[in-house]
Amino acid sequence: MSDIITKLPGVVFLAFPQMKARLLRELETRFSVTAADFTEYEDLIYCPNWELQLGSTKTSYGSYSLPYWSRTTLLEPFTAHFESIGEAARLLKNIQRSWAPYQFTQFRRAALIQEKLPYINLKPKTFPCSIPASAIGMYTLLDKNTLIASAKTTSFLPAGALELKEDHENPPSRAYLKIEEALIRACSLGGGCFTDSENPQPYCVPFPSKGQRCLDAGGCPGGWTWALRQLGCDVVAVDRSELAPSLMKDEHVTFLKHDAFTLTPDELGSFDWVFSDIICYPEKLLKWIHMWLESGKVKNMICTIKMQGEINWETIAHFKEIRHSAVIHLNYNKHEFTWIHTK
After folding, report:
1. Which residues are bridge partners to 306 per DSSP?
2. How far apart are CA 109 and CA 158, in angstroms?
3. Which residues make beta-bridge pairs with 143?
4. What angle (nearest 5°) sits at the alpha carbon of residue 261, between those of residues 223 and 312?
5. Cis peptide before 200 (omega within 30 of 0)
6. CATH code for the domain defined by 2-160
7. In angstroms, rounded to a whole number, what is the distance separating the alpha carbons of residues 342 and 155?
8. Any idea which fold 176-341 has?
9. Helical (H) or strand (E) element with 315
10. Chain centroid offset of residue 11 CA
11. What are the residues whose beta carbons fall under 8 Å from the beta carbon of 255, sequence distance 6 or more?
12. Bridging pattern class, strands 11-15 and 253-257
């Protein structure tokens, strides 16, 4: 069967939904990749001349410098020609067990192929949950008889996607999905997979839990505070506007009406987790993060990096350079990245 498989040079990037333009812009401004250097298959961007560049920080995205706007990257791509649905399934199973689909055409045919492959869970997940650190490949039908695929990818999630079951009644905002996804990635071997020079093995941390003290900077209307309360945490929420009434009445929530960035660690005390979803310039957030880390009064941090126009990649690199840290784009992020620090 190897005679119908054609190995491809380079890599294939899969853009996050509705983020293809940003992926292309990142390829141009951060990696100097022009339109002449790639081929597009809907949200797939094939770069045949791409050489994997070693990065200084290892995360779930591997030890390579890769685009943030790519939800998964096919590291060893190939194309294959097949005559039947069964032949396509056998071809993939002969390479490895687990495969996830990404489709932009031939949806019914792809679904029939997936049915013949070993089962993987493609349903929305219930928080809290973990991501197993097990390999999963990805394939896409380019036409009725041709697929592009890679057994080795940069995500342990099916096609790099993490979809969560939504609560449409209780949270005060949909922002809770963002902190839930960030925590799943930070607290799963297959989600964060942080490593450092002293500990080359992937590691993760436990979820925030009952009795732990958390700071929610810029908490209004309270989506992140609500999510932390579901885990049993005691939350100090700081904002100029009050939280949702149900959270204001919660005895495990302390609300401070204040600018979160003007309060110091000495004034607020020590925390197991510090969170921020504040709209501010990345440079201001970076300075605030360093203040907390240098204080020694926080163990773990998760902060949203809000983009202001054109992205300054040098500034983003400063976030990534912080020890025990990763910068990723979440499925529930918009024009923003998420910085995660655990130890």
Report:
1. 336
2. 18
3. 146
4. 85
5. no
6. 3.30.2130
7. 19
8. Rossmann fold (3.40.50)
9. helix 313-321
10. 19
11. 219, 237, 238, 239, 242, 243, 247, 248
12. unpaired
Local confidence pLDDT in tens for the 343 residues of the chain: 445 899 999 999 999 999 999 999 999 999 999 999 999 999 999 999 998 754 433 333 344 689 999 999 999 999 999 999 999 999 999 999 999 999 999 999 999 999 999 999 999 999 999 988 888 999 999 999 999 999 999 999 999 999 999 999 999 999 999 999 999 999 986 555 454 444 445 668 899 999 999 999 998 999 999 999 999 999 999 999 999 999 999 999 999 999 999 999 999 999 999 999 999 999 999 999 999 999 999 999 999 999 988 999 999 999 999 999 999 999 999 999 999 999 8
Q: What is the pTM of this model?
A: 0.92
Task: Tell me the HSE value of 197 on the side-chain side, using a 13 A CA sphere.
Answer: 5
How far apart CA 275 and CA 300 sit, in angstroms, is 9
* Domain residue ranges of the chain, discontinuous segments joined by +: 2-160, 176-341
Report the alpha-carbon distance of residue 185 to residue 189 in Å, rounded: 8
Take residue 91 and report the two structure tokens written for it: 């071809």
Query: CA 324 to CA 195: how far, in whole Å?
Result: 7
